[in-house]
């Protein structure tokens, strides 16, 4: 019953689009591992049961052999269900994913054993109950390898991107790694100048889409000669397909994160000078928007996710300087959330005002409305929940399209009834909350009037909230639905 209650709450989500929104208010905040020297919540993902999976890292300098927490599962009240520790100190978790069977996989960096000084990229698979299934470490001696992003593939394997042959100061080369379902290497690709203190090369985010791997990367390669964020495309055999270069103007911006968009393209944000950049499925620019910050502000972006109305939520930190009466400068850094519509128009922009520095490394929208953000606060793991926004201007625009889905919630087949004012080309597509295409129910020409079609979810689809979008040549309309397996 707990699962049904959580999922049914998704039906209460307001049907807002890109119109006036009152920024959300904070409902609660919680701190974790406050007795450690440092704790950082790097990534947050939503499970099919509504729980929160956090990829993290902790350290305690007073205990060199202290095991590092690399992942934990929380309920939506922020209570810890379980946490996972790496058996050797110094393990950092950077990114995690939830698999269709309820298990989890994370990537980051770790040492091979308690005596090793060489740090390697690691992947760890974790059961739904919080036990480690397997751990793999990919290490080149005397250098530092890191995994920044991981994605699952149709064959049950994984693709990971990050860096290889680096040191603590020099980033080394960008690295793309594909494994099978057990974490064993199938192939790797790397490029860039090893141990360069002039050029920076690394893979920041990797996604699977349209039968290809798309990687948001930094630095030059054999085909893209300017520095700055690039999109690079590979097939599943590791062959380079194409790359998209956004010019020298992006040199200092650095990549932050990337998500799939509901139109089949990609949206990424930059880290130092925050921009939100939307492309088609080939990486060609559709629109770009800058994130407004006051003159003299310091700021950094980390995460971007799609929201249920095909817009975006962005997280990072926003800083400013103040001077005390004695003339000393004090720097403040505050958790930062910005909300955009599907065209990149800013809807709201808020700071998390607290008494010490806090950063939001990851964020997501909840199916029942509202948002979660995680990061660090004064050296502790940090989690914040925000309420849903309140619409303050016009409701949804009047549309000549009509779309209804039933039953809702559904457990087997979903019926979609739609009405057209005139004959038109129609596509009806189902997405998850991160903008990934789950299935296409119809695509073709339909006459004026009402039609009903049925969609059967794929067998591996997990329970959760999904979006059904009807597109014609001139309009689109979206409805949410809840699937309960």
Short description:
With 485 residues, the protein is mainly β. Helix content is 1%, strand content 55%. It folds into 2 domains: 21-391, Neuraminidase (6 Propeller), CATH 2.120.10; 402-483, Immunoglobulin-like, CATH 2.60.40.
Largest sheet report? 4 strands, antiparallel
CATH superfamily of the largest domain: TolB, C-terminal domain
Total number of domains: 2
Oligomer: single chain
Helix tally equals: 1
Radius of gyration: 22 Å
Tell the overall outline.
globular
Write down the CATH topology of the largest domain: Neuraminidase
CATH level-two architecture of the largest domain:
6 Propeller
Beta-strand content: over 45%
Strand arrangement within the widest β-sheet reads 2-29-28-27
- The end-to-end span amounts to 13 Å
Mean pLDDT: 83
Structural class: mainly beta
Explain what this protein looks like in three dimensions.
By secondary structure, this protein is mainly β. It has 2 domains: 21-391, TolB, C-terminal domain (Neuraminidase, 6 Propeller), CATH 2.120.10; 402-483, Immunoglobulin-like (Sandwich). It is built from 1 helix and 37 strands. The chain has one helix at residues 2-8; strands at 21-22, 26-32, 38-46, 52-59, 68-74, 80-86, 92-98, 104-111, 119-126, 132-138, 144-152, 158-166, 173-179, 185-191, 202-209, 212-218, 229-234, 240-245, 255-260, 266-270, 275-279, 285-290, 298-306, 312-323, 329-340, 346-352, 358-365, 371-377, 380-386, 390-391, 402-406, 414-420, 424-431, 437-446, 449-455, 464-471, 476-483. A 4-stranded antiparallel sheet has the order 2-29-28-27, with no helix packed on it. Strands 3-4-5-6 form a 4-stranded antiparallel sheet, with no helix packed on it. The chain has a 4-stranded antiparallel sheet with strand order 7-8-9-10, with no helix packed on it.
